[in-house]
From TrEMBL:
Gene Ontology cellular component list: cytoplasm
InterPro entries: AKR, Aldo-Keto_reductase, NAD(P)_OxRdtase_dom_sf, NADP_OxRdtase_dom
Keyword set, alphabetical order: Oxidoreductase
Name of the molecule in the record: Putative oxidoreductase, aryl-alcohol dehydrogenase like protein
Source domain of life: Bacteria
The keyword Oxidoreductase belongs to this UniProt entry's keyword annotation: yes
The keyword Iron-sulfur is annotated on this UniProt entry: no
Ranges for domain NADP-dependent oxidoreductase: 20-287
GO molecular function annotations of the record: oxidoreductase activity
Length: 296
């Protein structure tokens, strides 16, 4: 289903007030020329640390207050950059992910051993410079360990006052329910955009329970695959990326896209989608470009 864009904010976990467009920082690594494309290594500390620090501070000035990272991004350097750049900045929500190991620049392997997850929460706390992490996702569900044990390990951190809320990444609706039998789940972060709607069922499921759905790679798709995208953008005098984000915001009041960018100009363009109301006709045309279509 598609909805009118009724609000620009969301209460994450019921107590964290966030704007509905955040900032994904996965590509805040390596050298600038080595960040684009699916093969970007996300392996080493960024070579332009001062520029990225400035951008993160400017993002808060522009109104962004939800920032997303992971312990696997640049082997923890992503968390360190975010923690140091936003040290002392109030009213920001930091989300990280644990449960993936990086034996080399090309490999991402789920690891859900409960003791490993507990250790990674401790390391994330140190790198982020926080006493409490606002939101910790299980980065990937490891089939080698029961889901209840993986979620249980993160729940221990909640009970110890080290983590405020828990989330899952790349999870099905059934896995969300299974995790929820162990602990409250505040957010689900899955790949989702105008052309990849394989998680439609999770979008609906999380909306019904008031759980945040956080689309990652919301703009990583071939715009030519959505012919009406350029048409609707022209009608609004906007960029196609702004319309793609507006479509996600209309998809449900619980959607919190986290587009990544290292350009303050692009970041401000992304935020402008919060003020864009798409008409029923425009939503129908955008929706019709994808099969099977989502109900309107």
């Amino acid at each position: 289903m598609l909805f009118a864009m009724t609000t620009t904010t969301f209460e994450l976990g019921g107590d964290l007030h966030v704007r509905r467009i955040g900032l994904g920082t996965m590509r805040f690594a390596d050298e600038p020329a080595n960040r684009r494309g699916a093969s970007a290594p996300v392996w080493a500390a960024p070579t332009d640390r001062a520029d990225l620090t400035r951008l993160l501070r400017e993002a808060t000035d522009a109104g962004v207050n939800l920032f997303d990272t992971a312990d696997a991004y640049a082997l923890g350097e992503g968390e360190r950059l975010l923690g140091e750049a936003l040290a002392g900045v109030s009213d920001v929500v930091l989300a990280t992910k644990v449960g993936v190991v990086r034996p080399d620049p090309a490999t991402w392997v789920p690891l859900g051993h409960p003791d490993y997850l507990r250790q990674q929460v401790e390391l994330s706390l140190r790198r982020l410079g926080r006493d409490v992490i606002d939101l910790v996702y299980l980065h990937r569900i490891d089939p080698a360990y029961p889901l209840a044990e993986q979620v249980g390990a993160l729940t221990d951190a909640v009970h110890a006052g080290k983590v405020r809320h828990l989330g899952l990444s790349e999870a099905t609706a059934e896995q969300v329910d299974a995790a929820r039998s162990v602990a409250p789940i505040a957010a689900v972060q899955n790949l989702y955009n105008l052309t990849d709607r394989s998680h439609d069922a999770v979008v609906e499921h999380t909306r019904d329970s008031g759980t945040a759905f956080v689309p990652f790679f919301p703009l990583s798709f071939d715009h030519a695959a959505v012919p009406s995208l350029g048409e609707v953008a022209a009608e609004h005098g906007m960029t196609p990326n702004q319309v793609a984000l507006a479509w996600l915001l209309h998809r449900g009041p619980h959607l919190l896209p986290i587009p990544g960018t290292t350009s303050i100009r692009h970041l401000k363009e992304n935020l402008a989608a919060l003020d864009t109301e798409l008409s029923a006709d425009q939503l129908a045309r955008l929706n019709a470009d994808h099969a099977p279509a989502i109900g309107s």
